[in-house]
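Hey team,

Filing this mostly as a record. A colleague (T.K.) asked me to run one chain through the structure pipeline before their review meeting, and I want the input and output archived in the tracker in case anyone asks later how it was produced. No errors, nothing strange. Just documentation.

Input sequence:
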Amino acid sequence: MILRLAKTALVFAVAFYAALIVFNNLFDYQTNYQFVRHVMAMDSIFENSRVTWRAVSSPTWHALFYWVIIGSEAASAVLCWWGAVQLLRSLNADALTFRKAKDIAIAGLTLNLLIWLLAFLSVGGEWFLMWQSKIWNGQEAAFRMFCVVGIVLLLLSQTEAAVDRV
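Output structure:
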């Protein structure tokens, strides 16, 4: 039972964190928009970079990319909240029922991982060379969140005990 509680609590924690991200992105839109704008504009990377042709200077594209991030984070939060509630409802159920209740949470955690890996580490970090910026570099935070959420997903995916195997 304690492992089921741990899994459920951790999914709730990720849901809460994702919801806070969405809240901050909406209520402090300009600050976080500036982050996206500077990364995509590549205006603070190494001066001698040969790939500045990748830079995107269009405010429309900046806003679109930012809204895709916000929408993905919101979807992840909703899936994680929903998944955590499903886990909570099945805490005392048999192993198969609890295992089936994991599906929505797994989808939410996976979407969250994809946000950090694709939007921040791949597109921001490598395509727009965010890692070269001293000011607009979010790779460390993105990697930290990718690891945290990945650990939660790995724990959630594990069966509780040999007795639970069907």
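Quick notes for T.K.: Helices lie at 2-27, 29-41, 59-89, 95-127, 139-157. The first helix runs from residue 2 to 27.
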